[in-house]
# Entry
Amino acid sequence: MTDNKSRPSHLAARRRPGTATKPWHPVKPIGLARALLKAGYGTRKQTELMVVQGRVRLGDKVVTDPRHMADTGADIYLDGEILQRLTMRYFILHKPLRVVCGEDRNQGRKQVMEFFPPMITGLSAAGRMDGRTTGMILFSNDTEWNNMVATTRGLEQEYRIQVEGELSDLEISVMTAGVHLPSLGLFKPQTVRIVEMLNGHTVMNMTVREGKIRQVRRMLTTLRHKVTMVRRIRIGDIRLGDLAVGTRRELSNPEIASIREIHAAVKRIADISGGSGG
# Structure
């Protein structure tokens, strides 16, 4: 048996008040990696690695196959501790410039996870954002909720964008009608609203649904306007507001629920039309 000093730091973190509730047992047969994911211990990739590394025990047996099935009510252990259902935590971070997500290959850059304490087990970003873009990123240790944020078609994202030059009414009409981008296809923002034109620059709010930020940049470059600032200010009904750069806050229950509500609404519409709701 190990003492508290030699115990891995993430286990000590799990014992802190408010991070775990009670032992978690599968209600139906489930793969070990997915069991850890459902209990809130990380993404699929992270939990698969935990199993492969020999950190997971099923009853008295160490299992290294992430797909090995655990029966209903099975006792699953991680690092010698009975698996617990973690308390789900949800955050918004105002990401500064040149800070990257963990998947970004830019070495030496500050990572978004450095803005969170390490004791929040399983926390990860709901989607990605490149180093050139600032503004809101959502985080939680609820993988299902993160997937809703990252994949729900129809979930609006709003950006505050600054470009060099003054946008004409014709250019705004072209953008709202849709622009065909080489290798990326047709890109059509939901709305484009000019905030101000001053000293040879234009600031606008642009709302998109299924577009990526690279499409926004490519469209403006196609119109010969250099992008000098992109900040995400809204995802669905969750707004960045006056949250200071480099700071975070926990989401309210209505904000958390709003993502599930939008996802459910999109799925209902997709089911009716015979499509996919994301």
